[in-house]
Design goal:
Blueprint lengths: L1 H10 L1 E3 L3 E3 L10 H14 L7 E5 L4 H11 L3 E4 L11 E8 L4 E8 L8 E9 L3 H12 L3 E11 L4 H7 L4 E11 L2 E4 L1
Length: 189
């Protein structure tokens, strides 16, 4: 997606440890026009799938997931990283390791929002090592729902996440694929 790649070039910042900082438009401040275009693109890429729900992890996946849900006219459910007073029983859970935060979180979704009748599209902001997607896939499996595909805003193709999904035969669509970081610059695949 050309507009996304241009935004990454313009506003992204490469940090030590193969981290790409995109807080200017994706995961702190959000560019709504870009998110709307991202939602439209995911709708186009998965138009042939019978999607009934979109699933993501809080918080950075919510904006692109909501825009995809708007384009597809389906509900969006996000896995919570922290328990709340209103979400503590009857949950699907999985443990997810965060590459950028170097911590593990238990993610949770209420069983009332995901059933065996659902055909699910996972949307997330980044694909690096695939931990968030694997956690969401475990929750989908626990619900006996059907995984229809994975939509990623930014993929770090030099990390193992894509290979894990390809090995499982999962349709994975990434809107910007990064081959490498070199001298503080992003090199797209």
């Amino acid at each position: 997606m050309r507009a996304l790649e241009e935004k990454i070039r313009q506003d992204g910042q490469v940090l030590p440890g193969n981290v790409l900082k995109v807080d200017n438009f994706l995961n702190h401040q959000i560019d709504p026009q870009l998110m709307y275009a991202i939602g439209q693109e995911f709708q186009r890429l998965f138009a042939n799938k019978p999607i009934t729900k979109i699933l993501t992890v809080e918080s950075s996946g919510i904006a692109p997931a909501v825009m995809a849900g708007l384009a597809m006219q389906v509900p969006v459910v996000f896995a919570r990283k922290h328990k709340s007073l209103t979400l503590k029983n009857d949950l699907y859970t999985a443990t997810v390791y965060s590459y950028t935060k170097k911590t593990s979180n238990e993610i949770s979704i209420s069983r009332k929002f995901l059933t065996a009748a659902d055909h699910v599209l996972i949307i997330d902001d980044f694909l690096a090592n695939g931990q968030a997607v694997e956690g969401l896939m475990a929750i989908i499996a626990a619900a006996d729902a059907t995984l229809e595909g994975v939509g990623i805003v930014i993929e770090k193709s030099f990390q193992k996440g894509r290979q894990l999904l390809d090995a499982k035969g999962i349709q994975t669509e990434s809107l910007a694929r990064i081959k490498a970081f070199a001298d503080g610059q992003v090199i797209f695949a």
